Predict the structure.
Amino acid sequence: MAGTCPFCGHGHRVAKRVEYLYRFGERLMIVTDVPCLECEFCGEQYFAATVLKRIEADFHAIQNMGKKPMNTIQVPVEAYSNL
Ligand SMILES: [Zn+2]
């Protein structure tokens, strides 16, 4: 996965651990310390297919199979329709 960024063509991506926000309709899941490659130029992040599949599987397990998440937080919502 190292090497050129397919998004902008810049030649250097670095390994990082980041926070991943998974969204399915109105349901959200935050996963911390997710390994990825990030382009040093445009900031685009690339995740391995196995990592994304695991996030989807964990989301499904938590939503539908009663798996207990590590933590649960409340998320405030605002709308700026009148700006
Ligand atoms: Zn890039």
Observations:
- Residues 49-64 form the longest helix (16 residues).
